[in-house]
User: Which sequence fits this backbone?
């Protein structure tokens, strides 16, 4: 395993998320309180209660990948209308679209999230000293800007999850009573509220907005391992996903008649997951993948699969709501190879591939 792969796996395991505290007079910190760990699988072997339809064999449907100009160390996310480039040191985002501008100037902030589609760009800046909440700039195709953070309501937190849909952006927030909440903000007006909050001593991460709606992974503060629950969020309601093995879920995205998710079989290998899909009442096995790599883009779910043998490449997998699983990218390197989390631009997808045959950053338009 390469040094880069080890670093990526480590980052996936130690990302911190706040929990709702039991004392509402003390707002929760942006990382878990003492004794709280990131969600990891329990030792429970409770199986899924959904009927099993067996494994899904992937086809090969490689996208028309094109190299991204510039150094691989700079992270690019693009759509047909915007290209956002984050510098290698994560201090600056360069935005090319109807106009060209630059956000961030180093100092005490880093670019922590970039969300892109055909209509808008959201660039999130995080305070390196964790002394103030995130600040996000929303830019539309006309060049108009809306700011989130600072005195905006609902307030942002330091770190925490961010996701963007067609009409809304969601982010972690702190409620008036100190609860850890998920804020929903209109992309048109910049106005928002916090309709859903985690229950006491719970946190959440990994918000995904698919065509079917919003989902998150919630976790509690049990020790030595917390128990994760995958939730569909609709206003103030949070409904657990059907078919997920108790406490073992990680990634989650909703479908119109089901869901795609990952489970971690071994607590000591949190980077290795098995992906599943439920269609109606039946659950199917999509095979191995990498935790934290599930994204919804262009009407389908994408996730990364690391090489399963020394002679295998790394793959980007796509599950479409029509029931097909396909390999849409494979690395030139074999064995010692891995991919970044794919970066969605609405009608385009971009990823970075690392391996002993060389690194590359590539992008493809989605039909």
Assistant:
């Amino acid at each position: 395993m390469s040094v880069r792969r080890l670093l990526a796996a480590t980052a996936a395991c130690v990302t911190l998320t706040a929990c709702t505290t039991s004392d509402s007079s003390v707002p929760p910190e942006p990382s878990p309180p003492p004794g709280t760990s990131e969600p990891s699988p329990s030792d429970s072997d409770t199986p899924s209660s959904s009927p099993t339809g067996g494994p899904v064999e992937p086809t090969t449907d490689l996208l028309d990948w094109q190299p991204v100009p510039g150094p691989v160390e700079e992270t690019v996310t693009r759509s047909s209308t915007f290209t956002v480039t984050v510098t290698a040191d994560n201090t600056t985002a360069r935005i090319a679209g109807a106009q060209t501008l630059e956000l961030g100037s180093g100092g005490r902030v880093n670019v922590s999230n970039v969300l892109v589609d055909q209509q808008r760009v959201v660039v999130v800046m995080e305070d390196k000293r964790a002394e103030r909440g995130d600040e996000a700039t929303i830019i539309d195709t006309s060049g108009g800007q809306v700011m989130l953070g600072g005195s905006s309501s609902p307030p942002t937190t330091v770190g925490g999850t961010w996701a963007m849909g067609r009409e809304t952006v969601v982010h972690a927030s702190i409620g008036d009573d100190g609860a850890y909440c998920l804020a929903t903000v209109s992309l048109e007006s910049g106005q928002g509220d916090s309709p859903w909050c985690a229950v006491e001593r719970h946190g959440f991460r990994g918000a995904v907005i698919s065509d079917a709606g919003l989902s998150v992974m919630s976790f509690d503060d049990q020790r030595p391992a917390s128990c994760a629950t995958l939730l569909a969020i609709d206003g103030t309601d949070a409904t657990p996903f059907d078919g997920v093995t108790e406490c073992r879920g990680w990634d989650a995205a909703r479908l119109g008649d089901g869901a795609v998710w990952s489970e971690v079989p071994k607590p000591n290998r949190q980077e290795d997951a098995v992906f599943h899909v439920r269609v109606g009442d039946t659950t199917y096995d999509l095979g191995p993948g990498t935790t934290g790599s599930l994204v919804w883009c262009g009407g389908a779910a994408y996730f990364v699969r690391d090489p399963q043998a020394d002679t295998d490449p790394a793959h980007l997998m796509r599950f479409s709501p029509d029931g097909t699983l396909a390999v849409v990218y494979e690395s030139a390197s074999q064995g010692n190879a891995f991919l970044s989390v794919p970066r969605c631009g609405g009608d385009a997808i971009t990823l970075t591939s690392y391996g002993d045959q060389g690194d590359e950053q590539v992008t493809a338009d989605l039909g």
About this structure: The chain has one domain: 3-365. The chain is about 5% helix and 50% strand. The first strand starts at residue 52 and ends at 55.
